[in-house]
Structures are given as C-alpha cells and as structure tokens.
Design brief:
The complex is a heterodimer of chains A (87) and B (386). Chain A is built from no helices and 9 strands. With 87 residues, chain A is an all-beta fold. Chain A has a single domain, classed as Archaeosine Trna-guanine Transglycosylase, Chain: A, domain 4, CATH 2.30.130. Chain A has a 4-stranded antiparallel β-sheet, with no helix packed on it. In chain A, strand 1 (4-5) and strand 2 form a beta hairpin. The mean pLDDT of chain A is 96. Chain B is an alpha/beta fold. Chain B has 2 domains: 18-133, Rossmann fold (3-Layer(aba) Sandwich), CATH 3.40.50.2300; 141-371. Chain B is built from 16 helices and 14 strands. Chain B has helices spanning 29-38, 55-70, 89-99, 109-112, 115-133, 157-176, 193-198, 203-222, 227-230, 234-238, 244-252, 284-293, 323-328, 339-342, 347-362, 368-371; strands at residues 2-7, 13-14, 18-23, 43-44, 74-81, 104-108, 139-142, 147-152, 180-183, 260-264, 274-278, 298-302, 316-320, 335-336. In chain B, the strands form 3 sheets. In chain B, strands 10-11-9-8-12-13-14 form a 7-stranded parallel β-sheet, sandwiched between helices. Chain B has a 4-stranded parallel β-sheet with strand order 4-3-5-6, sandwiched between helices. In chain B, strands 2-1-7 form a 3-stranded antiparallel β-sheet. In chain B, strand 13 (316-320), helix 13 (323-328) and strand 14 (335-336) form a beta-alpha-beta unit. The longest helix of chain B is centred in the middle third of the chain and has 20 residues, at 157-176. Chain B is globular, with a radius of gyration of 21 Å. Classes of the chains: A mainly beta (87), B alpha/beta (386). The interface between A and B is medium-sized, with 24 and 23 residues.
Chain lengths: 87, 386
C-alpha cells in the first residue's frame, strides 16, 4: 500500500502521507515503479524518510533540488529532519 | 492545442469579454457599485485607492489599475471619479492610453451633479459598452497567446507534494506550446535565491532573480524582521519542513522546470513569452491582482486548506491536492490533484488534464469563483495614506 510520495526521481527523500511506525514499510511509486523500504524509527505524517544513503556533508534532495546537507550519515529508512539535515 | 479567445485591437487576447465599472477613487466606490449592480452582466472592480498616496504608491496604484484595464479580458471600462481626488481623469486616461486603445469612459460625481445623475449617466454608458462588447466573437487562438498566473495560498503539506507538482507540470506543458507562465510572491522565494539564479535563461536573468529576492529580504530586515532566522517556523518544523530552502521550494515548485525568461516589477505588463517572475508581495489577493495587471488572463491558484479568492477580471482556478478539502469545500475547488498522492494517477497525467481544464475555462467554462461571483481586490503599498 502506498504511504509515501516521491516528488522527483532524483530525490533522496520521500514524504510519508500517513504516520509510520518503526519497522513498518514505506512504499512509493516513482517512474521506475513501486518501491518499498523499512522505516528505522517512527515517522510523523508529512515528514521525510531517506530512500538513498547520504553521507555526512552530502546534499539531501527533494523537489529535484538541494534542500540542505546531511549533518551525519543518513541511512535508507531514516527519518530526515532537523536531527540530520541543515541548510 | 488551441483556445477560442477575443482578439483586441491593441494586440492582446482575452478569454472573457468584460465591461468593467471601476471607481477612480474609493470615495466613488459606492456610486460605481450601484451602476454595476443595476446593469446586466457588468463587472464591478473595487479600487481602495485614488487619493492621498505619496508618489511611489500612486505610481503602483496607476500601474495596477491601468494594467487591469489593458488586460485582454476587458472589452471596455467606465471609471467613476469623485472630482476632487488626486488621480483624476487625465492622469488615468494618459497612463491607460499607453497600454491599450480600448474604449475608456470617465465621469465624475461632482460634475454630473450627485449620486442619481451619475448612476443614470453611468448606466447609459455601460449599456452602450455592453452592446458593443456583445458584437465581439471568439476566434481560434494559439496557447502562445495565453498568460497563466501561478499563485498559492492556504497551503498545507499536500500543496508541495501534489498540487504544486501538478501545476508545475502544467506550466511546463504551456511553455512547450510557447505560452507564458508567471511566478510571483518574492518573499516565498527567500532561501531559494540560489536555485532561482541557476534557473535564469541567461546569467543576467539569473542574477536579476537573485537580486530581486535579496532586495525583498533586505526590506524585511530594514523593518526589523529576519525571514531566514524565523523560517521555517516551529509550526513548519512540526509539520515536517526542515530547512528554508525546502519551504521555499514547496512554493516555487509550481513554476515547473523551465528556465526563467524575464523578471518584472509588481504589476508591470508582460511582453515576452516563456516562464516569468513578477516581483511582489505574498499577500494572495494583492499578488493575484498584480498578475492580472501584468496581462494574465487566467490564474492557477493551488490551495491545501481551500480559499474562495476570485477576481472580476480573470477566472481564478482553485487546485487542491487535499482530498478532504476537494470534497468538503467543493463549491470553491475546481480541480483535485489528490490522485497523485493515492497513486491513482501520475503527476504527468494530472498536469495534462489540468492544462485541458484550463483550456476549457479559456473557452468560457466558468470556475467556482465566477459562478459564486467572488471578486477580491488589493494593491500592495509601501506607506500609509497621507
């Protein structure tokens, strides 16, 4: 069941459209089709989840653009927010 | 893809054929409204100004009002003045004549001899204008003659992930047909100035975009506000927005992916094709008005929570990605993009359908704001009245 939205295929994050709990699937549809990852923590509704690995200091992409830089290594399924992303 | 519009002798194309009554000054507003109310199918456009403004704000008022009258959707206008105000007949006529040769009539209450006489005279004028306007017929026009204003308000998280994404796709499609889209609301681009800079068609346009955003930023700072420090707000962060770039991108995303081909002042007439940026406020009604003054015949307005905003001159299409809003507030929403969230339809499919809907509206289909007779008017100002 789809519970997340990817805006641009190059994005490193998706936005969940429902609250997701630790260990639950995060599923979205991109041009490549249906993908599923597992959340590594609870994710509040409308928050971001990493769908790609991002190294500390690398760009985090949403809308196909840089929304900031990772402030620590981000792993697939991680909640991406103020704890690991900054301008 | 084509639409049927009204070709005007000044070269503009309209998708509506309005006869408009405009008060030349707020003091004449009640009388002007009486004329519009008594006439059949005549649009009343409120004007909050016309007097007691300094030269900078007077210039803005004139740029906006003359631009609106020059909009292709207007067949002709009756301006109702008072008589003693600072923006009088000659000032209006001179600036309007620079933009258009359409029929303009002017009467003033003090000269006509009071309310009733002005209403009687005004009715004669608008009825004869209406008779002339009814002779206009729609002709086939290319989408290259369409200017689409891009606006958002009452945003929620669905705006960024759905409605703005779909509108961006629609804007890209319109530009592929050599049409024009206009992004506005400079304050909402603060934080995305580097992204806008990269999107200039030329390095000069990119720099102009960058400078325009920074200038607005400086203006806020001069008034003791630092957008960069206060945004995203705690509420924004709680709702999932992490950085200022992310917040700004949610808004400018509705301009799609095309390069910007021009930067215009607030309400300035747009005279190029492609994607444009218009400098100005993020106050929804005042920015819708500036887009119409710039020549936009139709406004695409994305909203998450829903807003009834409309304008007498141009249809304002309400687009939402929020299924609940589309259902609960159905008498003010025209297009629902929530299928892009559920996965039932792709952004591309919805972007194509939205362009088709916009063409239907251009051909005469009424949007909810028109059906409900909603018209809002505001003009951005820098100073208080004198």
């Amino acid at each position: 069941m789809i519970n997340a939205v990817i805006i641009n295929d190059i994005d490193t994050v998706v936005t969940v459209i429902k609250k997701v709990s630790l260990g639950e699937n995060v599923s979205y549809v991109s041009s490549d089709g249906y993908s599923t990852i597992k959340a590594t923590s609870d994710i509040p509704i409308n928050h971001k989840v990493a769908i790609k690995q991002v190294k500390n200091g690398d760009e985090v992409l949403k809308y196909g653009e840089r929304i900031g830089y990772a402030t620590m290594d981000i792993h697939i399924g991680d909640h991406v927010h103020t704890n690991n992303l900054d301008s | 893809m084509k639409f049927n519009g009204y070709r005007r002798s000044d070269g503009h194309v309209g998708i509506r054929n309005h006869v408009v009554v405009l008060p030349g000054v707020i003091c004449a507003a009640g009388v002007a409204q009486k004329i519009a109310n008594k006439a059949d199918e005549v649009e009343y456009l409120y004007n909050p100004n016309g007097c007691a403004q300094n030269s900078k704000d007077t210039a803005i008022t004139l740029e906006i009002l003359s631009g609106i009258i020059a909009n292709g959707n207007v067949y002709g206008v009756l301006i109702v003045g008072l008589g003693c105000e600072s923006i009088r007949k000659d000032i209006y006529i001179d600036i309007i004549k620079k933009k258009t040769d359409k029929p303009i009539h002017y009467i003033s209450i003090q000269q006509e001899g009071g309310i009733q006489k002005t209403v009687t005279k005004g009715l004669e004028i608008v009825n004869s204008l209406k008779e002339e306007a009814n002779k206009c017929v729609r002709e086939e026009c290319n989408l290259s003659e369409l200017i689409l204003g891009l606006e958002c308000g009452g945003s929620d998280p669905t705006s960024g992930i759905s409605a703005n994404a779909v509108l961006g796709n629609t804007s890209d499609r319109l530009i592929d047909f050599e049409g024009t889209s206009v992004l506005c609301e400079t304050p909402e681009a603060i934080g995305a100035e580097n992204i806008l800079k990269r999107r200039g068609q030329t390095p000069e346009i990119g720099q102009q975009l960058y400078d325009t955003v920074l200038k607005y930023d400086e203006m806020f700072k001069a008034n003791g506000e630092d957008i960069r420090k206060t945004n995203p707000s705690l509420g924004n962060k709680a709702s999932g927005i992490t950085t200022l770039e992310e917040k700004s991108l949610g808004c400018i995303h509705k301009s799609g992916t095309k390069p910007f081909n021009g930067v215009y002042q607030y309400g300035q007439m747009i005279d190029k094709k492609g994607l444009m940026f218009m400098d100005g406020t993020a106050y929804d009604v005042a920015s819708v008005v500036s887009l119409i003054a710039g020549g936009a015949q139709i406004i695409a307005f994305t909203t998450g929570m829903g807003t009834p905003v409309g304008n007498a001159i141009a249809p304002v299409v309400k687009i939402t990605g929020n299924k609940d809003t589309a259902t609960r507030l159905s008498d003010m929403i025209d297009f629902d993009t929530s299928d892009s969230i559920s996965g039932a339809k792709s952004v591309e499919e919805l972007g194509r359908e939205l362009l088709e809907y916009i063409v239907n509206v251009c051909n005469g289909e009424k949007v909810k704001a028109e059906i409900n007779g909603i018209s809002n008017m505001a003009i951005n100002q820098f100073y208080s009245y004198a």
